[in-house]
Amino acid sequence: MSNINLLPWRDGVRAGQQKQFLAWLGGAALATLAAMLVINLWVHQHIARQQERNQLLQTETARLDLVLGEIRHIQEQRARLMELMLLIDSFQQRRNFSVRLFNQLPELVPPGVYLSSVNVADNRVDVVGKAEAYARVAAMIRHIEGSGWLMEPRISSIFASDAEPVALSQFSMLFRVNETIAGAMR
């Protein structure tokens, strides 16, 4: 029994175990490499799909920007048209104003008051004239206040004139048009 040498057998077993270990190590490296390739391929596919989605979103965003530009253009046109409509509407409402004012002026102006100019600007009327007496101008103010659609009469100036043959007082008066009542009556 003492002649049995187990060293070559142990070397053979060790060499087999080393080959088996290297085979397993190579298999694990190949499996890891294959898994990395599969994962890399999967990640690249997801990146490609996301890039396609991003491209689609960019295309749709550009298309929507064009649509929004058209909408802004349409809104600007609409705003201009609305301004024109409001202007035309105000002209429509004011077209009968002068006729009504000049139809009612004989009722507002008492005898002995003579108007030399009537200026209308927006809802303000400026009247310049002459009167035989201050009381006649006061009567005109009462008539304006009682009209219902004219309001806030104010005398800007009134002074006696030394003109011959009849001395007349010159006056300047302002009054406003009540837009709510005047608009309803137009």
Automatic annotation (TrEMBL):
Keywords: Membrane, Transmembrane, Transmembrane helix. It comes from the Bacteria. The keyword Transferase does not apply. The keyword Repeat does not apply. It comes from Zobellella iuensis. The chain crosses the membrane at residues 21-43. This is PilN domain-containing protein.
